[in-house]
Specification:
The chain is α+β, with helices and mostly antiparallel strands. About 35% of the residues lie in helices and about 45% in strands.
Length: about 150
């Protein structure tokens, strides 16, 4: 009986180690995305994205909420024009949820441009595991200048 319990504890530990490894891989993809942005490294930035990745932002214009598409090609072109260190989005990786080849991550952030606070908000990421590598498929974010404790 004791050996059965010990075996179950060991197997449970192996399962959680594998799950943690997947979560680490998802987190690394997101961290690499922001490192690419901060370092104006479009090669690194593109390496984190699925070929059909989508970028959107939620905008509140005087009480009217809109979802705006931002083509990744435009975003990457903007990053390419930056000097390394200009765009510094400091994130906190929240819960990482994984089901098979789908991961969902919530990341509150503070964005600094050329060392000065610009805005804060939350990113919501959807990642897909493609060819054994986590890729960002979808990002939607909020942006505000107030309530950024």
């Amino acid at each position: 009986m004791k050996s059965l319990i010990a075996m179950m504890v060991c197997l449970g530990g192996i399962s959680s180690v594998k799950a943690q490894t997947e979560k680490d891989a998802v987190a690394a993809t997101i961290q690499n995305f922001f490192a690419g942005m901060k370092n104006a490294d479009t090669v690194k930035l593109k390496s984190t994205l699925a070929s059909t990745a989508t970028l959107q932002t939620i905008v509140n214009n005087g009480g009217e909420v809109q979802v705006k598409d931002e083509p990744f090609a435009d975003f990457i072109s903007m990053v390419a024009k930056l000097t390394p260190g200009d765009a510094d989005e400091q994130i906190e990786i929240g819960n990482i949820n994984i089901d098979g080849d789908l991961a969902s991550v919530w990341t509150p952030y503070h964005f600094y441009y050329k060392g000065k606070f610009s805005h804060c908000g939350v990113n919501s990421f959807q990642l897909v595991k493609i060819a054994n590598s986590w890729k960002i498929q979808y990002i939607i974010d909020t942006r505000r200048k107030e309530g950024c404790n």
